[in-house]
Fold this protein.
Amino acid sequence: MTGPEQLAQLFDALSHPVRVQVLAQLACRREYVSELARILGISRPLLYMHLQKLEAAGLVRGSLQLSEDGKAMKFFEIVPFRIRLSPEELASLDTTQVIRFTDAASAP
């Protein structure tokens, strides 16, 4: 994946308020999926959709843990990150791939 694609994926992951809330919650501690869904007041399937997008962007990671009764429990935790973006960093991105993709999409 190129620099522009990675940047777009990161911005896409951060573009929904629920995903930002997920990150804020996970910044405090790792959470079990069911508990995180309860805290945020959303369904587990909806939470999983948001977590998949955050995980694909490299912002969170999931792991399975067995409970005392042998039940598999999925936990998520934040991956340490720092986001810094300046005009100079944007100018240094190789945009040729993005331009070629845009040209191909607009071709008849």
Notes: The longest strand covers residues 60-66. The chain has one domain: 3-106.
